Amino acid sequence: MRRTSRLIRVAVGAASLALAATACGGTSSDSGDGKDDKGLAIAYDIGGKGDQSFNDAAYAGLERAKKEFGYKTADIEPTDGETDADKEQRLTSLAKQGYNPVIGVGFAYGPAMKAVAAKYPDTTFGIVDSVVEGKNVASLVFAENEASYLAGVAAAKATKTKTVGFVGGVDVPLIHKFEAGYEQGVKDTDPKVKVISQYLTQTAEEGGFSSPDKGRAAAEGQIEKKADVVYQAAGLSGQGVIEAAAKAKVWAIGVDSDQYEQEALAAYKDYILTSALKDINGAVYALAKSVEDEKPLTGTQTFDLKSDGVGLSDSNPKFAGIPGAQDAVAKAKEGITGGSIKVKTE
């Protein structure tokens, strides 16, 4: 239970209307009002804050909770070459300090969270992109394959060379979901379109999610093979994919956040056709709110297309200029939410 009164919390929530989604600053934040009340803390995945994608979406959820509930928050960066023991120590430290909930951003936190959550039964824990069993753990998972299907539909409509690319950060089941949905969306839209796929590394420790240079090289190789649309699910490495696509004046498709709107990618935005979205921001905030309301979420919480937990952005005005793209995406979304289209996961 929070130390601040329910009355104070309601007043703060009613007065706070803006969503702060900046991805700049240090590794922790303070409400600055002298309260001892501690709320949401997040521990970042590989790539950390500033990836313009996965981690930054989680940070936006933290900032939203901080503004609405007026409490202290913390966000902690990962370290290079860290072990499960390092992650366990990080989560333990946050729980000991009294933060609640504590969220691990990324499937890599699975083993550490299982161990730490059992030791702190009065703290609610959350993990993004993995399922961890525990009475006080909320597993925040997404239907990435459904958003990727829509990205595949858009790619099939946008390609002129009948060749599109996919760059995955690490060869793991989570990223296979992105690839499977994308390829199915492409093929269902136009069976004649070829999909070239590549994974940057076999393990996260090799830098698949944190190496823009690897992403750039992979995209350049696919573009040389005539791919004129390249979709990336590669975290920070995806920035290199987008840069290579813009340099070659072909389309890139972003991931997790609306990368057309990311300030750090502004130089390349004209070539970001769309982005496959995951509402990590909303999921992180939802868990924080449930704890604040003293009704903490636990178990598997799935965010899919039907619940608007995933989707496809249309921020780039040029997307509307692709013949038939918007109608095809709308039809595909209707098919998925209505059940007539079953999207593969591998």
Automatic annotation (TrEMBL):
Report the superkingdom from the record. Answer: Bacteria
Q: Per its UniProt record, what CDD domains does this chain match?
A: PBP1_PrnA-like (cd06354)
Residue ranges of the TM segments = none
Give the taxonomic lineage as stored in the record. Bacteria, Bacillati, Actinomycetota, Actinomycetes, Kitasatosporales
Alphabetic keyword roster: Cell membrane, Lipoprotein, Membrane, Signal
- By its UniProt entry, which Pfam families does this protein fall under? Bmp
Which Gene3D superfamilies does this chain map to?
Answer: 3.40.50.2300
Q: Which family does it belong to?
A: Belongs to the BMP lipoprotein family.
Q: Which GO terms describe its cellular component?
A: plasma membrane
Query: Is Membrane there in the keyword field?
Result: yes
Domain ABC transporter substrate-binding protein PnrA-like positions: 47-316
Q: Where is the signal peptide?
A: 1-25
Protein's name according to its UniProt entry: BMP family ABC transporter substrate-binding protein
Localization per Swiss-Prot or TrEMBL: Cell membrane
Originating organism: Streptomyces parvulus
- Principal subcellular localization: membrane
What is the topology of this protein in the membrane according to its UniProt annotation? Lipid-anchor
